[in-house]
Write the structure tokens for this entry.
Amino acid sequence: MEQGKWKRVESAGTLLRGVNVRREGDVWRAAGVPRVVRGDSWRPLQRLALPEAGCEAVMMRSGNLLGVIVGSAAAGGEDVLGILKGEVAEIGQISGEPLRFDVVEPGVVRVLMKHSRTCYATYSIGSGGKVMFAWHGYMPELPPMALMVDGEVTMSETVGSIGLSGAGSVRNSLGDGDLATVTGRLLGAYGRLKRRAESAGYFVQPTIARYRLMDGAGDTIAVSAPVAVGSSTGFQCCGEIAFTSGDGLATLGAGALSARVYRLRLMTAGRLPAPWNRIVKEVVVETLPPLEPVDEQSQCTATATASGSSTVTVKVRLPGVPVSDEANAARRRGLVISALDDGGRGYGKQGCVAYPYDAEVSAHAVGLHPLEPQGVRKQYAPRRDAVSYGVCGTVGEMLVMADRREEGFGGYCPLDFMVHGREDATASWQCAVSVTIMRGDGSRSVAVAAGHGKGLAVEGLSPLLVYPDASAKDITVSVSTEIGGVKRMLSETFPLTALPSTGVACYVPADVRPFMPRGVVDSIVVPEPSVGESKCGGRVEFCGPLRLSEPLTAVSFGNGAVVAVAEAPRSRATWDFARHKVLLMGADGIRVVAIDKDGAVRSSALLDDRPVARREAVCVGHGDNGLELLAVAGGDLVSVSQGAVKTMMRACRGEVPGWCGAYGEVWMCGGSGAVRRFCRTGGVAEVIEVSLPGSAAGDVRFVGYAGRLLVSCGEGLLDTSEECFPEAGVHVLLRLRHDLRGLLPVRPLYKSYNGVMPGFVRLWLLAASVSGYVAVAGDRGAHGAQCLSKLKIDGALNAPVAMRLMAPLREWLETCVDALTSGDAEWLPIEILYRTQK
């Protein structure tokens, strides 16, 4: 049978497995090893600008060690990683995961920790402009201060004689016209009394007061209990004002309004060691508008009683003051509770003391200032640093905090409630406050706060006891005082009234006056506290810069924890520049939320219900339309935009993605298998393994820095944007599968390849140095290729390797190169030589 001439076809093949290779068109080239930036275990966390020092710092971490590199703020350009080559100054040890570093004020750095208390570091500029950092860890419990009533005095306002109509009494009272006249005169006198007192800095009526500790950025560090403060006699001008008339109620004789007025006194706690004495920048005393029992829109009530043949005594109460003692007490108590509840009024600033923990113990008088309230009332967490989050991100100038955790609150310091007392060198006190909390699910817990001190003779507690949880049922106050050697111990339990809209529970006595517990005890028993932490995984808070204690908006999206937040890329759709779109990713899937410039949530929608496991499972990459978010959701690699989720690869077998912009590749680590690179060539997804010398797959971590993808591994810190080739070469493994069915002719009669005689296959592996082997295997579609030929190579290759193909013809071929090659190695499409029988 006559045989035809030799013919040749080419095949680029499809990838079965690749290690340290990269495709360029139909040519595969050796991929180098990422360039080493650092040869140790330090990795960058965040860049931090230090404008007053004219430089920037890069916070670094190695295990549980925290360090810093300080470099020029102008460093950048092509060598954006140059600062990372500098010397790391070790700062201290950390026990958690830092989420974010912020310069609160020059010299103070606040470190938000994942589900742990906030930590602090400081820096100073030494000789020669050298910046030195110091680590201080958690802020200690700050010593309490005392906000007390001080300087009580009596003020009076005379009411001159009042001319009446002379019509006499009507049902033991005054007629409407005479009552209106008396009301006008008394309200005028009451107004003059208040203005005179306020101009001298005195409060007339009780009010609700508190103090707040502020940091250098104006954020609240801690807030005291809201307490009802007032004179020792409680509400003023609420009794009867007596007038006499000897002319048949034609006139009323002169009278007077009297009131016990007061000021406030703030007792600071003394000096703290550095840096805490300067981190608390000021303490601010705030009050609500005075609790006003007088209703100026109503009329007085009067009772006329004949006290002689020609004398009539008229007893008048100011408008709004009930006649009966029971109604009067109920109204006063209602005023306190409604003021504490969300009634639309805000706290006003009455005074402040700068750096209260940087001075010796001292008292600061706080007088009444006619200031406008600050607006909407804020219900602050009692201790800011007791609240932590699992994830933190930025959207515009706002911070987005999610996965909230709050430590159990033991209660306000007992000293907060001691609003009446006097200084006495012979006095000492002990106090314990326990609160019983009953949840809707039937669980019970007890919060306990205790304190003690000297030099203060406690005379009365605030007629407002508060615990910041509407589920609290009762509060027990136990006080032990010793004055001049005389000791007494008192204890009493009070029921609490829940205010769900405010999130607090409170107790207000009927007479709304300072009080002491009435039960006499032999000892003060302090119960065991049992308040646990609370978690709100789906709660998301939008905050202003450095204002964590004052969220602009707080919204809950389900119960699943949010593990990653990011602003949606402005691509693939029209964009509303008046709003931001935020992507929330976590256990419940991927959700988009639209917020306005004030942080208010306008809309939200669930884009995908595949869960995202952790914060590192999300990164920023580049797509055909610009920026996009890449995430591993439900085991799949997906691309997330503001309106859609696109699956890039099913079952990607990775947990953490990273974007290498230099080569347009997605790197993946974690999960099963080695580090891999994912890319698309001609619409076909290809996954290529990466061999990092000296590193196990589980030791690899991705770090995003200045738009670069860095790899932290056993070799140190590597830059994926720049590759190098070791002198010993790089290990390359490339397995390709070739489908010959569409390349070889088919005999028309039998629709088979029986007339095709295989000859040779040319493997185009070209390199200056190759040490390994190449092989060819084949099968007829069973995916169990049998080795047809294998050749060991050691040296340079500048011509194709021809390998004989044995009959019968295999419609599928697999080629493999497994070798240590030089950096110029490349693999071209193979050539298959065959001829047909005629």
User: Anything to note?
Assistant: The first helix runs from residue 176 to 199. Confidence is low (pLDDT under 50) at residues 748-752. Residues 268 and 362 are 6 Å apart (CA to CA).
